Every structure is written in C-alpha cells, then in structure tokens.
Amino acid sequence: MRTRVKICCMASVEEARLAVAAGADAVGLVAKMPSGPGPIADALIAEIAASVPPPVASFLLTSETTAEAISAHIEATRPTVVQTVVHIDPAESARLAKLRPGVGRVQVIHVEDAGCLALIADYAPQVDAFLLDSGRPGAAIPEFGGTGRIHDWDVSAAFVRTSPRPVFLAGGLTPANVSEAVAKVRPYGLDLCSGVRTESRLDPAKLNAFMKAVRDADLALGADAAR
Q: Which tens digits make up the pLDDT trace of 49-68?
C-alpha cells in the first residue's frame, strides 16, 4: 500500500503548488490556534483551498469545538476535508457528520499515553480518518499540533491495528526518521510541517528528500512482504 503524504502549514498559494508538484496527496491549512506554527487568516485558507487541484485534498485545521462552529468554519473556507484538532464531544462529532456529510472529517488524537486507544470507539462511527499527533491539550497553553515532537510509536502502531478507519501519523517526522515510522506504525498516511521547512518556509530540498524517503520506505515494505 502506498503511504499518503499531507504537507501542513501552507502559507501561500505558491507553497501549496510546490507541495502538490512534489507529489503531496493533501495540504494542511492551519486556522487560528492557541499555539503552534502556521496559522493563517480564513480568507487566505479559502484562497489556497480553491487553488488546490483534485484529487489533492485541502485540509482545514480548526480548533472550533461545536458542530455548528466547525460547520460555519467550513462554510467560510471551503476545504475538502476538516481536521478537528480538539478532542471534541463525540456528540458534536456525530452532529457534524450530519451537518457536513460531503466534507471529509478527520479527528486528531493527541497521543500522550495508551489511554488514547479508548477514543477510537467514541469517534470512529462519525469520522473518515484519524490523525495521531503529539499535542498536549491539557497544557497551560494548549498544544494542538505543530510541536515537532515524536510521540510513542508503539502506541500509534496499536492505534493503527485497532482502528477501523485510516490513520495518519504526525509529530516530529523528517526524511531521516520516516522509514522507521512507516515500518513501525504502518499508517495510512503521514503529516508534517516543520520537518520540511527552513526558517518557517517550505524548503524544496527537504520536501523532495521527504517524498523520496517515503517512496523508499514503501518499496522496502513491499519487498519484505514479497519474501
């Protein structure tokens, strides 16, 4: 299976085009957050989302917590997928599925310990995919992503094995460690921001090195499976 790649923290139409040209399957558009890199105005999110050609997906990262507020955020920005970065009430997740059946819905799970596995049953009926990240939602200043930290990949691997939905892996991914991440976790997709940036700007050399490393990791897995 080919590992999908989502490049997050798009800052401009030009960055999105660069990610698409490198082979990204999705781009991430970060709205207002309490912390972390890459937030941009909703008007720019809408502009970038409109520029992304199918079948590449445009992900809106929202910190809204109610179905109505998330739906309004979708209306304002027009992404193809909404990524909810807060562990929202599962009842709100179910309501969002009814309000926005035509928009992909991804629930972020912040992997702080193995307790996150219990959240699978809460959200799986209402979402299309999960994304495992290294945030600390309970911190004094909540972290909902973009930390550049690796979390416990053993827990992530268990999550992937248990989840009935596709799972993206995020948190501290780079060209140097992505092969290990793919081999250990076996995610549906990968998501990263800082790992392909230099001084906050999307770095073509790092981006291309990451995409090559993912392709090489997939080839290695395929070779192992064929033995």
A: 999 999 999 999 999 999 99
User: Quick one: three-class SS letters along 98-140?
Assistant: HHCCCCEEEEEEECCCHHHHHHHHHHCCCCCEEEEECCECCCC
What pLDDT, in 10s, does the model give residues 29-50? 999 987 777 899 999 999 999 9
Task: List the CATH number of the domain containing 56.
Answer: 3.20.20.70
199: left (phi over 0), alpha (psi -120 to 50) or beta: left
112-156 pLDDT, tens digit per residue, is 889 999 999 999 999 999 999 976 766 667 666 666 778 899 999
The reported pTM is 0.92
- 98 near 140, Cβ under 8 Å? no
Q: What domain range is 107 assigned to?
A: 4-226
Domain count of the fold of the chain: 1
